[in-house]
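Assemble and predict.
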Amino acid sequence: MTVFTFALKRSFRNLPNVFLLCVLPIAVIFLPTDDWFTLPLGFQYYGILLLFAASRMVHFIMEDRINGVVQRIGVAPLTHLSYLSQHLLAYSLLLVAQSALVVMGGVVYGHDLVAPLWLFIVYAFFAVTAIGFSLAWCSLFRSKEASLTVMMCVIMLMAMMGGLFWPVAVMPDFMQRIAMLLPTYWLVKSTEIITTATASIELIVPLTVLFLFTVAFLLVGSRGEIA
Amino acid sequence: MLLRNLRFIWLRMCRAYVVFILLLVVPLCVIVVWGVAVGSVITADTGMTGMDWFAVSMVLSFQLFGGAYTMSYIQQDLLSARKWRIYSLPYPVYKHAYTLLIASTLFSVLQGLILVVFTYAVFGVNWGHWGWVLLVLFSVSLLSQLVCLILALSVRNFKLAERLSEVYGVGSVVWAGLFFPLPDHAFFAFMGKYGNPVSLGQNVIFGLLNGCNSKDVYISLVLLWAASATLGVIAVLLGRRKLI
């Protein structure tokens, strides 16, 4: 688990990452509520934070690819699968722990989160999906700077169209259909079910879709690394 | 010489595709998605349509990040190894620094103007008098360029200076209340109205559109120019110490 430990340490080595992983999650807890959403604004926006944090961390893997570290690892007694899985595991662990911290913080602060445990499970699923998405995204680019810049734009658009800034119901029909192709839509759908429905069995559909998104993204993203 | 140098700096800027995407394509996409998705649904408290409010706010917000041009070119030309080549030219360094500042400000204004024309033509956004819009874009752009210039000249670690410029941009947008409503307190109310460049620009454009509260319009413009003048003096002092 050397790579795993190193990936964990590396995630905290620069200031923006520390800010994204430790400071902003605390800040979202204190955001006020809004009439449009059943959850407090911070918990609504937390999905965006997860996407940004995942993208920052997964870009380390891209950095390794650009700097030739992956090639060096190719001659070491370590398979690409092991290298990749240990990295992804470390990033997932960080984001899942962060989700737990945010939900616990919300409960302690006094927000009405209806079902905090389910909310944590949804965020944990989405965190892994965000990591998969970032991995798939990075596999499409050769320049870290270009990848991060375009990804920032894509994350904002995904957040807008997925219903993180406003309810999907107010958008035109064709946009509501397009939104269903985005992971953010299923995150919002899950949180809506948690805050409005009584039966948590209804969560199976959005969580399954998020899981399938994760599998698809990981297959696309890991293809280049294993080859 | 200044005009000749301006031309080459603009050519360099046109080739910076990543910054181009960040400052032109991203706001275009965001405005289009917003306009198509909820442009007709959301209405602003100020009495104008939601699309008008959002377009003005977005165009002004992205002007804050235009300072990246000044910061990056000052770093490349005058603070890295290339500076020795620039110093060896029969061309004063301060002139090059001023040209970079002017070129970046005008280029950022031009990008803002493209967004203004786009929103006017496609979504019918009411911008009011174009002369005032240009003046506001120029004021906000100049202020942002000066903030970034000061950061480039005063912070030793360039990466840290870049992050601080992002803090300035995102922080101003947050202070303007574009992400979430600020707490109901006199301090936040003041900062939300006069404490950041986005709100100051909004005050001018919205004030002129509504045709009332002209005092707010002039106060906001004076504040923008006063801030730019103060930062200009600081930038000159830092530049004399660091560049000459």
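The mean pLDDT of chain A is 88.
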